[in-house]
Amino acid sequence: LRVNQDEPMEDYPLKVEGGKEDDSSSGTCRFGMGQTTKDQMRTNVINEIISTERDYIKHLKDICEGYIKQCRKRADMFTEEQLKTIFGNIEDIYKCQKKFVKALEKKFNKDHPHLSEVGSCFLEYQTEFQIYSEYCNNHPNACMELSRLTKVNKYVYFFEACRLLQKMIDISLDGFLLTPVQKICKYPLQLAELLKYTNPQHRDFKDVEAALNAMKNVARLINERKRRLENIDKIAQWQSSIEDWEGEDVLVRSSELIYSGELTKISHPQAKSQQRMFFLFDHQL
């Protein structure tokens, strides 16, 4: 079976017992137990969602127990503030995902995986998944702090010792810390794939459809917050570059620079003209 292809499987003749091709005129190939190709594809997607979720939980556990626990024992090397910068709220994400994977497993139908109704799990956890926003916004700071520390040999050796003790694969810590960012972006892709192989008559169809929109919204919200924080940062840097700033901070009323450019100020009666730079923010000029 070629998984995740775009062409509908119904067009492919299948080898059945006895080596003959089953090219039945009904147009729907069937697997043993009367299962259609679409059901088999849905089984594959459900299995992938469950197995990637279990792998992800192990990954989070390894970071929390293999790295954070060890770092906390070394107050001579790390302050609590540094650990917050490097690992963000990954421990909260771990707690949330543990509950989520249990909810998924409850909905998993072992005997007939294609009948599993997992859409409701994503709907139930959509607001909790917003904690990824904090993690994603902090991630660039984590990378900067790590790159600063790994210029010092004792930190390189320490992180490598953590990885080996926890028996983790040979990837640097910043590689492990990228996983939650990738994970939250992968949910809409998995749900789109699941929806593709869910019949409109299936009891899970409406929930999967709603879950896909919900997870797209979570990803959109995270991106919006990230963009807004970047804008705020730009304004703060812009203001600090101006000498002898007077009046209240721009950030008291505005959070976005919309446009900037030169204007000519003309004063009567002599009609003298002066060039001025103007900055248009969302609530002030």
At the fourth level of CATH, the homologous superfamily of the largest domain is: Dbl homology (DH) domain
Termini gap: 61 Å
> H/E element string?
EEEEHHHHHHHHEE
Strand arrangement, major sheet: 1-2
The CATH class of the largest domain: Mainly Alpha
In CATH, the architecture of the largest domain is Up-down Bundle
Radius of gyration from the CA trace? 27 Å
Say what the CATH topology of the largest domain is.
Dbl Homology Domain, Chain A
* Tally of domains: 2
Number of strands: 6
Morphology = flat
Summed up, the helix count is: 8
Helix content: 55-70%
**How much strand?**
5-15%
- Assembly classification: single chain
Low-confidence stretches: 1-34
Protein architecture, described:
This protein is flat. It has a two-stranded antiparallel ribbon with strand order 1-2. A two-stranded antiparallel sheet has the order 3-4. It has 285 residues and is mostly helical. The model is unreliable at 1-34 (pLDDT under 50). It has helices at 37-72, 80-87, 90-107, 119-125, 132-149, 153-165, 173-196, 205-240, and strands at 14-15, 21-22, 30-31, 35-36, 257-267, 272-281. The chain is built from 8 helices and 6 strands, in the order ββββααααααααββ. It folds into 2 domains: 38-239, Dbl homology (DH) domain (Dbl Homology Domain, Chain A); 254-281, no CATH class.
